[in-house]
Write a structure and sequence with these properties.
This protein is α+β, with helices and mostly antiparallel strands. It has two domains: 63 residues, Rossmann fold (3-Layer(aba) Sandwich), CATH 3.40.50.300; 99 residues, no CATH class. It has five helices and six strands, in the order αβαβαββααββ. The protein has a four-stranded antiparallel β-sheet. A two-stranded parallel ribbon has the order 1-2. Helix 2 links the parallel strand 1 and strand 2. The protein is globular. It binds iron/sulfur cluster. The site of iron/sulfur cluster (SF4) has 11 residues, from loops. Iron/sulfur cluster binds next to loops. It is a peripheral membrane protein.
Amino acid sequence: MLSGGMRQRVLIAMALLSEPRLLIADEPGTALDVTTQAQILKLLRELVDARGLALLMITHNLGVVRESADHVFVMYAGCIVEQGPTRAVFTKPRHPYTRALMACVPKLSGGESMRGIDGSLPDYSDPPPGCRFAPRCPLAVQARLRAPPHFEVAPGQSAACFLLEATA
Ligand code: SF4
């Protein structure tokens, strides 16, 4: 009988057997209590430092991203909509989806009611022709047939939104 944390450690040990240079951790904290999650993240950080590993983490947990990543890529419906140094993206998110995502995180200070993102994900077999976030975007002003390119908004940070065209 192994606990969730033990199972994660076994998986990490197995993944390291072939001495990879890149470790991909897909939702490493899922189904773990907060204490065990912190231990697993600490272990991953130690491995990165000790072995010079590159770590690619895939997660929905913004707290884990903020704590663990140097660089973040925000994805919506299979597309990277914003990327940049973690601190820059969290301090000043520029894409409407990134902003909406961060507004979903409950604040310890309270005060505001938590809100989700209206609508639902597009059908991946028939996605919207232009910006995939358009059907849910509160800032969408007009339908476009082409997907927005990435515009640089700060050194190392870019976001794919037509509203940023003028500022880029
Ligand atoms: S390109 Fe338009 S629809 Fe897409 S995120 Fe920007 S404002 Fe919203």
